[in-house]
Design a protein that fits this description.
With about 575 residues, this protein is mainly alpha-helical. The chain contains 25 helices and 7 strands.
């Protein structure tokens, strides 16, 4: 990993993040991960900023304007880390823009010591966050620090900036001072209260349980909602389906055929919606309160064995919402573990669309409990796959990321939770549902043309390897291209003919064989064509092997019992 001297050399390279001059003063906001930069900008500008206590939530430079200034939010810097986000943030320091340095009251001496060499001779000011954790009697410390450094300094709570504090910040930014490289020492420090997550052994198990909780709660909520709503919708649609079944093809096939809008479409809303909403809200609570970051620290001793850090695992968990932002967020991973993390996201992060479609298939089969063995097998194979694709030298050196100090827990508020959740929820209703319906339309047309039957025959020999019927081929293909396409396994005639093992096999194979097209393109953009192709090749080989074991697990179990 890069050492501090290397970061100074990065700065000397210059120019990577320079901004063009304009009439509006540009303020570059820098600081370590989790100090509250994004929240501060949101409070100063009144603009929505995707902020949280989740470290590494900002992965690129974004600008937010008010009447007087343009604030550029940069990714959090992790010293002694070679992550892409750290490089982006450091490169942003160059140019003639003013610097707004944000440091935490919990590590004020350490933060200032690290940053002053980077911003020496630049103009700007310092804001100390988390000041609400200290008694007001410590205010004289800030005054003394301001006098020693000859730099404007304001201590505040980034979540609750008063109007007077806001005006004072703007006044100081109008007349920024030059940073020096002067050594300072306030002697103040405060650490978050320890919880069971910081216990050596218990913390690992509690952390793992917390990571699985969003998925479990989503399943419980979906089943509860589905059991109530599905019979009602079925009764309402019974008569319209009967009336429309007399229409000529292909119109009848599109509307009420095996893959029709009315015959299959209701599954989309009934089973997918609660999964997406519940998962997004629970993960929003984790992120807005700082629990997700605490959890990543707790599981780090275990996850580093397989080649990733606890911080990397939180990116994999994000993939259960959507793989694309999870892959992008991997920019804050160490270069040693980023490739492994992306591979794990592509393999095992069952996005909201895939997960909800899986639950719909299990429910359509009359065996909703299958979600439990599915999650267990998906988790186990993801762990094994991650271990296999990680580089030995990275595991030996434990060159994961540097783990910064713990962040403070924050009280959950509806506004903060909603801010973290609404992106996944809105994406589902704006993008996923229309695509769901598009899949049913395409599938119904293909079914009408007879292509399904032809294609099933042509690749029937492949389905036999996985102990699946020929009719499952379309679902496997659709699910490989678009994760929610595995919903085609819920077609009544097909799902009724499958055993429990076959349903598990079909859902697992369709969901993990390939990354969806959008994820694949994102990986190419973030990494390279070569990396993406190699990743897909490894994933196909692993999934085929794991699926064959799953498909024949009942036979293997019988052999084992006889022995």
């Amino acid at each position: 990993m890069a050492r501090r001297s290397e970061f100074l050399s990065i700065m000397r390279l210059g120019g990577l993040g320079m901004l063009k001059n304009s009439s509006t003063p540009k303020i570059i906001v820098i600081g370590k991960e989790g100090v509250g930069k994004s929240q501060l900008i949101s409070s100063l500008t009144g603009k929505y900023v995707e902020s949280s206590n989740f470290k590494g939530s900002t992965v690129s430079k974004k600008s937010y304007n008010n009447d007087n200034f343009s604030f550029t939010d940069t990714p959090g810097i992790v010293f002694d880390s070679d992550s892409e986000t750290t490089r982006i943030a450091i490169s942003s320091i160059h140019g003639n823009d003013s610097i707004l340095l944000v440091v935490s009251a919990a590590n004020i001496d350490e933060d200032i010591e690290y940053f002053l060499p980077l911003i020496k001779n630049k103009k700007g000011m310092i804001i100390v966050t988390n000041w609400d954790r200290f008694d007001s009697e410590n205010n004289d410390i800030i005054e003394n620090l301001e006098q020693n450094l000859k730099i404007p300094i304001i201590a505040l709570d980034a979540r609750k900036i008063t109007e007077s504090q806001k005006n004072r910040v703007f006044e100081m930014l109008e007349n920024p001072r030059i940073f020096s490289n002067k050594s300072v020492h306030t002697g103040i420090s405060i650490k978050p209260k320890s919880t069971i997550l910081e216990k050596k052994h218990a913390g690992v198990f509690i952390g793992l349980a917390l990571l699985l909780s969003p998925a479990i709660l989503s399943v419980i909520g979906a089943n509860y909602f589905g059991d109530i709503i599905h019979p009602i919708i079925s009764d309402l649609l019974k008569e319209p389906i009967e009336n429309l079944s007399t229409l000529p093809s292909p119109l009848m096939d599109v509307l009420v055929g095996d893959y029709g809008f009315l015959s299959m479409g209701p599954f989309l809303f009934v089973w997918a919606t609660p999964v997406v909403i519940i998962y997004a809200l629970v993960l929003g609570i984790y992120k807005s309160t700082g629990l997700l970051d605490r959890t990543s620290l707790a599981i780090n001793p275990l996850t580093k064995i397989i080649g990733v850090s606890g911080r990397d695992v939180t990116r994999i968990v994000m993939g259960f919402g959507c793989n694309v932002p999870a892959v992008i967020s991997s920019r804050s991973c160490s270069s040693c573990t980023r490739g492994t993390t992306i591979s794990a996201i592509s393999f095992g992060s069952a996005c909201s669309y895939q997960f909800s479609a899986s639950i719909a298939v299990f429910s359509a089969s009359g065996m909703p409990w299958l979600v439990i063995p599915f999650l267990l097998f998906l988790t186990a194979t993801t762990i094994l796959y991650t271990r296999l694709v990680s580089r030995k030298k990275d595991r030996v050196k434990l060159n994961m990321p540097v783990i910064e100090g713990q962040i403070f827990f924050e009280k959950p508020t509806f506004g903060a939770i909603w801010r973290e959740s609404k992106s996944n929820i809105s994406q589902f209703f704006k993008m996923a549902l229309p695509i769901f319906l598009g899949i049913t339309f395409v599938a119904s047309i293909i079914s009408w043309t007879g292509i399904i039957d032809y294609f099933a025959v042509e690749i029937s020999f492949l389905m036999k390897f996985f102990n699946l019927p020929e009719d499952a081929s379309l679902a496997i293909i659709f699910g490989s291209i678009r994760k929610d396409g595995l919903l085609l396994l819920a077609e009544p005639n097909l799902v009724s003919s499958l055993s429990a093992i076959q349903i598990l096999t079909g859902v697992y194979l369709a969901g993990t064989l390939l990354p969806c097209i959008v994820t694949f393109l994102t990986v190419i953009r973030e990494m390279s064509w070569i990396f993406a192709i190699k990743m897909v090749g490894k994933q196909i080989i692993a999934v085929v092997a794991f699926t064959i074991v799953l498909a024949h697990s009942d036979k293997l179990l019988n052999v084992f019992l006889k022995i």
